[in-house]
Fold this sequence. Notes:
alpha/beta; Rossmann fold; 7-stranded mixed β-sheet; 5-stranded parallel β-sheet; 17 helices; globular
Amino acid sequence: MKGEDAVTKALLAAADRFYGVPGYPVSGVLEKTGAETVINEKVAVEYALGDSLSGRRAAVILKNVGLNACADPFVEATTQGLIAGVVIVAGDDPEAVGSQNAQDSRYYGELAEVPVIEPGPGNVHQAVEEAFRASESFSRIVILRLTPDLLDAEVSPGKTGRMGKKGTIAPLNLTMNGRVQRARNMLGSMHEWSETSSLNVRKGSPAFVGAAGIKDPSTLPAGVSRISTVYPPAGTLENILDVNELGRPFVREHQYLVPPAFREPERREDRGYYRSFCKDCPFVLAIRVLDEQGISVTCDAGCCVLCMNPPFTTSLVSYGMGSSIGVAAKSTGVALTGDYALLHSGLPALIDVYEKKTPLLCIVLKNNCMGMTGGQQAYDILPYIAWADPVICRADDEARLREILVLPESPCMVVIEGDCPEGRHHETVEC
Length: 431
């Protein structure tokens, strides 16, 4: 069986949803899985995270440079957590045969602090399922690195049972620093997972990484090792004289990496306070209406994240700037974003949602400024979203808000207009 077909078969068995953007060398995998093609890689990851929150495993299929486009929600997911597994199937092109460059996706594992698995011809099926299990065990996205060598190779047919478990999102009472530390505390378990993984075969020197010429592990000649869990590193390589890798010397560079010491995550109660909306914020009324009507939302970065703090229970998670629309389209069905965040990077998801007629209520808080970073001037969004035929409402019109803030049967955009108060400053509330 060709590697491409083996990867496809394994993905179909392990995941529930598939998204992606075509590109060498993984266009064939995208096509054979029937993956939904989306407007860009960032939206693909946002959709996958929305599925995750709804308990569905999702795979995102993209080429190496596509990781750059989805980096924001990808990295944010490590801090915020997830529920069902999400795997990015990254097609690397070490020889730049069909790509702009030879970017090595494994380095994103270090940046985002996520597991990176590079399967070999003898463990494709096992590696795919293990990627989803690792995602759920460590509540973060996992990278499955594929190269043309593997996709074109003859591989051993395999089968592995699906054993899904649930990840967790970060507890709401953690501060942002606490969320970061909670995620970092799992690195010790990730190192242990890599060290003991059956995906790796240790026999001695030299060592081959992933698909670098090694077939079925049972046929490895004496004195040869194979490494598939390339991040975190699978222990030191002190007794290995030569490491054969496709791409840069990633494994060699990280062989002595050790996890950080455990630290208790900071909670709001420990810090003694939490932050809330500015006094006399005009948009608090809309948040209260959503709360009272029992409408759960996916919130964006910016002032919207404050609806995750007391006294509100409107949202549980935020995956970064411009992410709420894509995530909500596959989870809550309601996105809460600011006007600047929408223009910053939310428009592609909005276009994709309207193109596919996905039921979604997109609520935009329009204050014409960047409220979280000091009130810098923002562009007027209305000229750029006229095609969406938005419903426009003043922030103080409670009767109208209760009428329009309802779950729709098709894409719907509501723009709530309000002016930030003079001397605005987010309130600090003692716990």
